[in-house]
Every structure is written in structure tokens, then in C-alpha cells.
Amino acid sequence: MGAPRIVIVGAGFGGISAAIELRRHGFDDITILEKAAGLGGTWFYNSYPGAACDVPSHLYSFSYEQRRDWSRLCSPQAEILRYLRDVADERGITDLIRFSQPVSECAFDPESGRWTVRTEPGAAYEADALILATGQLSRPSVPALPGLEDFAGHSFHSARWDHDYDLTGRRVAVVGTGASAVQFVPEVARVAARLSVFQRTGNWFLPRRNRVYSRLVRSAIRYVPGLQRLRRTFLFEYCESLTLAIRHPRTIGRVAALRSAAFMRRQLPDPELRRRAWPDYTFGCKRILFSSHYLPTLGRPNVDLVTEPIAEVTPAGLRTADGREHPVDCIIWGTGFKATEFVAPMVVRGGAGETLEDVWRDGAHAHLGMSVPGFPSMFLMYGPNTNTSGGSIIFYLEAQAAYIRQALEHLRAGGHRVLDIRPDVEAASDRELQARFAGTAWTGCDSWYRDRHGRIVANWPGYMREYLERTRTFAASDYVFT
Ligand code: NAP
């Protein structure tokens, strides 16, 4: 093969990191198709008040594009988006992106050994290699509650925040208490007349004050040699220690849960509110929430924590199972994403005509989260079992980008047309991966990491350093080259 033509779907951190890596190694024929009008993926769409990353920026950034001028430990959405835009501009990636091009179908033709990628507006792109970087958290999920369509007030999902709707003085319902909600609930509580927070499950919390860095800290990070690197290393090890706690719920996990519980008790002085907000599952099974502002917000006089299940949506608001109606002007759905459906609603058709949806009928799986047998020269980024509960997803994306680049180098160097993961290799790595969940906190509850069969399809079962180790060197013998 000469210079392969590469199509990347998605211009978030995943697609951009793949494009950077490939360009750095001489792959120049790259097109990135993006459904949104701007780049950034999750950071483009999630602009709710208080949106920030709860992974510190020195780690939640590319290893080769470190910054010494982050405004605080965990940067706000606008700062992260600006960072990604700057990196994409400086590295010549922005020009490769075709915006407002939602992809509807990708189909592999075994005759030509090429992919055809079609977009909703009707364009078609041919590719020798296809990289699907649509992420796990791109499709908002709103629960199919009875009466949903009858609500007469205003409503929106946290990932599609309606900035034109002024919440000041309104009666607001927030449904859901995950990582997104705990960031925007304190902001909404500040302006709303009344805020009812509908919680299905209480969560485990750890502190995050996230104040703007003092001038002294900023100067130290900027000017003290090695401090930036030390900070990144420390944060990396801290994140690995969270995974350690999740992997060992009966030992280290207990200690971490005690720390969380002590913090939560301080944050929730009212015993009744504390009882209702308390989690009933193993520490680390769902995402640990980092906030020093959310729990105290629940104690505000204008805020109600509602723990009765929601029975239905009425024209006036929400009715809970105890028959009580909660009239509101606006419902904000903080109910997460259709994470386990991965590339849907795109139809991705492999060599034998079957779709990824068919192949993943019993749960998504892919070798190292990237390669699926029967889908030649196709790679996923942030695919099945590559989410992290304790680390930085950017770290995983960089590892994936380097692995994919090596795969394409092999293809190019060997003069082959396509490569396909061996089904036995993929099945064995999936078995091994799933077995590693045994005894971990992840198995201790239901969460968005599981699909409808209960299989954990979102998360990597180990540490960041293990994933890097597994992906560092592309094993050509795992693939069939044609
Ligand atoms: P999420 O974690 O999936 O939370 C959804 C919330 O909605 C949960 O509290 C869930 O309750 C609740 N819910 C879902 N369906 C419901 C229903 N029918 N009735 C009542 N409650 C319902 O979604 P998210 O908060 O948007 O976060 C998703 C992921 O995005 C996070 O886990 C994280 O990986 C990422 N994220 C990261 C950051 C960051 O700073 N790094 C920030 C935001 C999001 P149950 O717990 O009972 O299911």
C-alpha cells in the first residue's frame, strides 16, 4: 500500500490525538469527520455551569503538550476546550476536520479492501483505514418516564445546556446525581428559587475545592525546574491509588471508604439528610465524585433532596412513587449517556456484511478496546473496556493513538492492504479482561459501566500503567495481514 488514506470519526480528544500521532509519523492523508460545528467532543457539548474536569489538568492533558499556566488544579470546560483548540491549531489538525458531518454509515468492501464512510448530509469518503473516535459519552440519555412528552415547562439535558433559558427565580428539578450533576447543582442552587434534586442512588465523595492557583503556586509551576513533571507524576500515582482501592475493596478500598465517609460526615451535619444522601454500594463501584460544594448545597434552605423514585412526569412537574407532585418550571436531566451503545447510531458494516451492533449483541468487546474481528483496518478509540474510574482518559487515548500508528506502519511497511485482529486473540484477551473484574468494587453494584446483560463493557479493569504496557508494542502476530 502507498500512503494510506485515513478517515477519523470524531474530533474530540480521541480523534485529535490519533491525528497528531499519525501526522507526526508521516501519515498525511487524514480526514476527520465531526458531527458538531466545532471540535472538542465532550468538551464542546458539556458547557453546563460549573463544568470542569475532576481529573487534574497536569494529567488530563497530552504528555507532549504540557502547560504550565493552568488556572487551577482541575480546569474549567472553557479552558480545556481552548487548550484542545490551541493544540489542534498549532499541530495543523484543525484544517483536517470537516465540521457538521455526522457519519451515518461506514462499510468495508472486501473486494477493494477499503472503507466507505457516508455522512448524513450525503457526502462519501473512501478510506484505507478507519478510526472511530466517537467516545463513550456522546449520546445523552433521558429516561423514558411515563408522561415525558406532557411536561408543559422547559427541559434540557446537562450535555445540551440551554444557556438562553434563565434559571433565576425558577423552580427547578435536577434528575440524577452523577459526576455532571454534582458540578452544576451548586451553580443552579445559587440562582433558582427552589431546587429539587432527584437522587436514585447516593454516592461516595472525596474533596475538591479547586480554587484558582495563587500567584506563588503559578510561579512555582512555571519557573521551578522539574516541578511540572513532578506534579504530573504525583497525580498519576494518586490516580493509580484510586484504582488500587477499587481493585481491592476489602482492604485498601475500606480505608479509602473511611476517608470518604469522614469527609461526607463533615459535609452533611444534618443526620437525616446524611442518611438520605448516603451510598448503599461498595466504594468505587460507581464513579467516585470529587466535590466539596455539592453536599453542603443539599443543606441550603432552597434545596430539597428527593429520594422517592420518580413515577411519572406530569404537565406541572414530576410525581414521585409516594404520590407527591413536585411542580417545577424546568427539568434538567443529569441522567448521563448511552455509554454502552458505543458507535450507535452509526451503522458500521464489516467484511461479511454484519454490523458492529450484530457482533456486539451480547455486549461490546474489542482487543485492547480497539480491534474487532471482521472489521479490517478499523480501530476504536475509547472503545469497549477502556474507560477509567481513577485515571486520565487522555493517557489511554495517547496509548491507543501510538498503537494504531504502529499498526498502520506495519501495514505500510509490509505492502499489505488490510489487517484484521485474529478472532482467537480477541476472544482470549476479552476472557482475560472480564475475569480481572472478579473481586473488584466494579462488580458491587449496577452502573453505567455495565450493559443491559450486566457485563462491564465500559471500564478497563486495571491500572493506567498496565494499559500502556499492553499497548506499547504492536504485536503483528495478533493480526492477519492480507
Ligand atoms: P451518570 O454518571 O451516568 O449519572 C447519571 C445520574 O442519573 C445517576 O445519578 C443516575 O442514578 C441518574 N439516573 C439515571 N436514570 C435515572 C432515572 N430513570 N431516574 C432517576 N435517576 C436516574 O452521568 P453523568 O453525571 O453525566 O456522568 C457520566 C460520566 O461522565 C461520569 O461517570 C464521568 O465518567 C464523566 N464525567 C466526568 C466529569 C469529570 O469532571 N471528569 C464530569 C462529568 C462527567 P443511578 O446512580 O441510580 O444510576
Top keywords for this entry?
31% helix, alpha/beta, 2 domains, 5-stranded parallel β-sheet, 482 residues, single chain, binds NADP nicotinamide-adenine-dinucleotide phosphate, FAD/NAD(P)-binding domain
Short description:
This protein has 482 residues and is of the alpha/beta class. It has 13 helices and 21 strands.
Structural class determined from secondary elements: alpha/beta
- Helix count, per DSSP? 13
Please identify which CATH superfamily of the largest domain we are dealing with.
FAD/NAD(P)-binding domain
Spans with pLDDT under 50 lasting ≥5 residues? Answer: none
Helix content: 25-40%
Shape label: globular
CATH architecture classification of the largest domain: 3-Layer(bba) Sandwich
**Sheet bearing the most strands, described?**
5 strands, parallel
Q: Kindly provide the radius of gyration, computed on alpha-carbon positions and rounded to a whole number of angstroms.
A: 23 Å
CATH topology of the largest domain: FAD/NAD(P)-binding domain
β content, as a range?
Answer: 15-25%
Cα(first) to Cα(last) distance is: 11 Å
CATH class annotation of the largest domain: Alpha Beta
Q: Which kinds of small molecule does this entry bind, naming each only once?
A: NADP nicotinamide-adenine-dinucleotide phosphate
Widest sheet: strand ordering:
3-2-1-7-19
Q: How many β strands by DSSP?
A: 21
What's the domain count? 2
**What is the residue-averaged pLDDT?**
97
